[in-house]
């Protein structure tokens, strides 16, 4: 099933500099719109970032990139099923967003844009993670093995960067103090990011404690791991 409609594809990205943020946006667009013309990309610099004094108060550069008139046709059945499911859920919760889908190496990415992304994402990403979980279940009914990622104008990349930064700071704190560090409650998707960020750190180990929806990650020195 495919559609021969035309729609703009819009992503957001961050980086230490505006140039790095633009490069990150281009890489994301390449996944969503293979073969797009880079000369047609429109950039909006939301923030040029701020390094802060001695590394304190660092804020990343933030850009929005848009490819006008990108074709949405040629979708696989899995991409179509995921996109239409996300669109139905967004409509059901009253979120005014548009969804586009692209498939690459067995991963279907549904990217949403529009004025109600906050509603779609939900508190601590709980809504978008739940939608992603259900979208994966829907796509599995097609009989094919595909992973579905539901994103909202670069939310996943920004949230991953923030979680990885928290993980590394917590690891340094745990290693230097010799004490366990408990992070805030997170969804399963976010806990997995923290675990993966620290899995190769020889000084610390991680585990999850608590019960949903208040389950959280604990970072502790390797010698204190249980």
Describe the protein in words.
With 226 residues, the protein is an alpha+beta fold. It has two domains: 6-154, K homology (KH) domain (GMP Synthetase, Chain A, domain 3, 2-Layer Sandwich), CATH 3.30.300.20; 157-224, Ribosomal Protein S8, Chain: A, domain 1 (2-Layer Sandwich). Helices cover 38% and strands 28% of the residues. The chain is built from six helices and nine strands. It has a three-stranded antiparallel beta sheet with strand order 1-3-2. Helix 2 (77-92) packs antiparallel against helix 4 (126-140) and helix 5 (155-177) crosses helix 6 (188-198). The protein starts with 5 loop residues before the first strand and ends in a 5-residue tail after the last strand. Mean pLDDT is 83; it is low at 1-6.
Please work out how many helical segments DSSP would assign: 6
CATH superfamily of the largest domain: K homology (KH) domain
Give the overall silhouette: globular
Number of strands: 9
Total number of domains: 2
Please tell me the overall pLDDT.
Answer: 83
CATH topology of the largest domain: GMP Synthetase, Chain A, domain 3
What's the CATH architecture of the largest domain? 2-Layer Sandwich
Kindly summarize this structure in a few lines.
The protein has 226 residues and is of the alpha+beta class. 38% of the residues lie in helices and 28% in strands.
Which structural traits does this protein have?
alpha+beta, GMP Synthetase, Chain A, domain 3, Ribosomal Protein S8, Chain: A, domain 1, 2 domains, 3-stranded antiparallel sheet, 3-stranded mixed sheet, 6 helices, 38% helix, 28% strand, globular
């Amino acid at each position: 099933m495919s559609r021969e409609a035309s729609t703009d594809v819009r992503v957001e990205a961050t980086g230490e500099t505006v140039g790095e943020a633009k490069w990150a946006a281009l890489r994301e667009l390449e996944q969503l719109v293979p073969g797009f013309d880079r000369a047609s990309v429109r950039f909006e610099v939301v923030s040029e970032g701020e390094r802060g004094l001695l590394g304190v108060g660092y804020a990343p550069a933030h850009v929005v990139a848009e490819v006008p008139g990108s074709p949405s046709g040629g979708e696989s059945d899995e991409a179509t099923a995921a996109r239409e499911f996300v669109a139905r859920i967004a409509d059901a919760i009253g979120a005014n967003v548009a969804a586009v889908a692209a498939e690459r190496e067995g991963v279907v990415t549904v990217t949403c844009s529009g004025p109600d992304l906050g509603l779609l994402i939900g508190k601590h990403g709980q809504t978008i993670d739940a939608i992603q979980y259900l979208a994966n279940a829907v796509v599995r009914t097609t009989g094919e093995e595909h992973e579905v990622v539901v994103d909202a104008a670069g939310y996943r990349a920004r949230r991953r960067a923030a979680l990885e930064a928290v993980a590394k700071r917590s690891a340094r704190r745990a290693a230097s103090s010799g004490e366990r560090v408990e992070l805030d409650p997170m969804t399963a998707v976010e806990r997995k990011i923290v675990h993966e960020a620290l899995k190769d750190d020889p000084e610390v180990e991680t585990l999850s404690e608590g019960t949903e929806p208040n389950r959280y990650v604990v970072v502790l020195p390797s010698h204190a791991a249980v």
